[in-house]
Structure formats: C-alpha cells, structure tokens
Design a protein that fits this description.
Length: 357
C-alpha cells in the first residue's frame, strides 16, 4: 500500500518538474465520508468507535482520484488493447480462467498476492494485493484516501500520489527506465513480488534482485528456486520461466555454481518426496509425470554442458555421476519420452542422448 514506503529519496528529475498543483472539488462529500470511515479501520486503544470494514466502494471512490493524481505526474494512460497486453505480460493470462487468485469486480479486478481465496483478505492493507483499474488503466495496492488526498479548505483538496505508486505505473505501463531505477533503489519488495508471486521475468535487473535472494539461502533451501522457474499458470498448465534459467547459466562459474546445483536437487525432488518440506508447492505432488519429465529436460539441458565445462577445473566440487545419468536410472521411461518429444528442441540435451546426431 502507498503508506508503506516513506522514503524521501527523489524521483527521477522529470518527475520532479510539475506544473503548479491543482485543487479539486469533485465528489467532496463522499470523499470526506470515506476518509472518516477509513480512519476507523484499526481499533482504538479505548474502543471508542466501531471498526470499519473496507469495501469495494472504497476502491471505486479512490480510482478516479488516483487517475487524476497520476496524470499530474506525467503518467500516460495506455489504450485499452495495449494496457490489456501489458497486464497479461505482467500477471499472465489470469482473467480467462476461473482461479482463486483473481477477484473480478465491475470497475476493477484484484490479483491476490497469494492463493488465499478468502474474501476478507482482499482489502487487507497489510497485504500487497494488486488492484487493476481497466477504466483508468493503472494498478494500485489497497487505496486509503488519506494517503493521497489533503483538504486545503472545506471545499477543495489536492492529490499527492506517493512516489512508489507513481514509479510502479510509469515503469510497468510507460516503460520508464528512470522509474525502474527508482524502484530498484526504493521499492524492491514490490519488484521481487512481481517475479515470485506473479511470474513477471521480463526484466533482467529485477530477476537479479530475486536470484540473489535465493543465493543467500542455505544449501538446504536454495533448491526452492525451482518453484519460481517451473510454475503452474492460471489454467493449471506448466510454464517454464526461461529467463531465469538463462540467468543461472550466465551467472554460473567455476567458483559459483550453487544455483545450478540447487536446480539439480529440485530435479531429484520431482521423483522423491523425501525432504520436500521446504517447498511451498511440492514438486513431487503438483506435477504430472509428463510435466516432471519436461522439467527434468530443461534442467539437464543447462546442467550437463556447464558440468562438462567446469568440472575439469575443480572436480572436487561436483558429484561423480551426472544429473542426467541419475534421472535416467530413476525414470526408466524418460529417454523414450524425450526422444518422442524431439528433446523439446533443446540442443544440449539432444547432444547428450544422441551424440553425433
């Protein structure tokens, strides 16, 4: 939500150059009413008022106000088709299939940060759920009116959108690289959530933020990186985040191959339910056999050539047997399956199993 980040770090220069601030008088009484109601969202120490439960109407009141505030900052509202394409790129094709992570409303849609599916959690301002306005074509977290509206007198107010929300929208929908730089410095939690919760892997700098977090994990938990690379989409189909596989390849060396080894352990976890408690989505349970074989193929395709390249330089840091050898012994039908699927057009994998062809 907007009031989580109180940083005073400056926005990019172009965002600091604004015309004199406008005053507004639209929907005055409704805004005053809901500002007061929202001030009672949390209980008082002496219980002097009834706790207010945030509603759909609170969001609907806030959306046109935020739209005006974003417009003041130079945010460019996309056309509907372009906006829908960007939403699909960021969140996936989540609105075509019924799933517990999406709440469809008349004037906005909500994407839940977790697959919780409980109505009361949608408007919890301590959770970073994302509200998508299709009419005004921007995103926001739970909008509390007092975060961006200040009354100058009884009949006029000014709108001041917090810098992180401005930067989120200008980066995601206006491709502002300066706003990405701001987010990388001041709003990393949101950027990481784009990858780990929503599956947005199109920006290498954000991917680096996330992958470095996995590198900081201990060896027992590092294999959970597989959970953000091999995911089930809204339709329940396997998606492979190839940008993250490419990241691992690019950042693997003779001195640092921890994530590559972690992926090999994830591959083994596909076939064994032992020691899988650290996974939020247990790979042994959530994937079909065909899906497991495809995942194994993509992991082996990067693991085997890197092992062959790096192992001679420091053999003591590598297992004696290869990942692919072990998987072929575990899954007797794997080799036939891969050949039937033309090795998923993965050249290194085909070279391993059909050398010289």
């Amino acid at each position: 939500m907007q009031n989580k980040n109180t940083s005073t770090a400056p926005l990019p220069l172009e965002d600091n150059i604004r015309s004199p601030q406008k005053l507004y008088d639209m929907n005055i009484e409704e805004i005053k009413k809901h500002m007061l109601l929202q001030s009672h969202i949390e209980a008082s120490e002496d219980n002097e008022y009834k706790i207010y439960n945030y509603t759909v109407h609170d969001v609907e009141i806030a959306l046109p106000i935020i739209a005006e505030g974003l417009k003041e900052t130079g945010f460019i509202k996309l056309g509907q088709a372009a906006f829908d394409d960007r939403v699909k790129t960021i969140f996936g094709d989540i609105f075509k299939t019924s799933n517990s992570r999406v709440k469809l409303r008349d004037k906005f849609n909500t994407v839940l940060v977790d697959s919780i599916g409980a109505n009361e959690d949608e408007f919890d301002y301590t959770i970073d759920n994302v509200f998508i306005s299709r009419e005004y074509r921007f995103i926001t977290d739970v909008p509390l009116i007092g975060d961006f509206v200040t009354f100058t007198d009884s009949n006029h107010y000014k709108i001041e959108i917090n810098p992180p929300l401005i930067a989120r929208n200008k980066y995601l929908f206006n491709n502002s690289r300066s706003d990405l730089a701001y987010l990388l410095a001041e709003d990393t939690l949101f950027l990481k959530t784009l990858v780990t919760s929503f599956g947005y892997t199109k920006e290498e700098k954000i991917n680096t933020l996330v992958m470095n977090d996995y590198l900081d994990l201990d060896n027992n938990h590092m294999p959970t990186v597989g959970e953000i690379i091999f995911v089930k989409n809204a339709a329940g189909e396997l998606e492979i985040k190839q940008e993250l596989l490419k990241w691992i390849v690019a950042h693997t060396s003779v001195d640092d191959h921890a994530l590559l080894q972690a992926l090999s352990y994830y591959a083994y976890a596909l076939y064994s339910n032992d020691d899988n408690d650290m996974y939020t989505r247990n790979p042994f349970k959530i994937f079909s056999l065909d899906e497991k074989r495809k995942i194994a193929a993509y992991i082996a395709n990067i693991y085997e050539p890197l092992r062959q390249q790096l192992m001679p330089l420091d053999a003591g840091k590598w297992p004696v047997s290869s990942l692919l050898e072990n998987l072929l012994m575990e899954d007797k039908g794997l080799a036939r399956f891969l050949k039937e699927h033309d090795y998923f057009s993965l050249p290194a994998l085909k070279q391993e199993l059909e050398p010289g062809n």
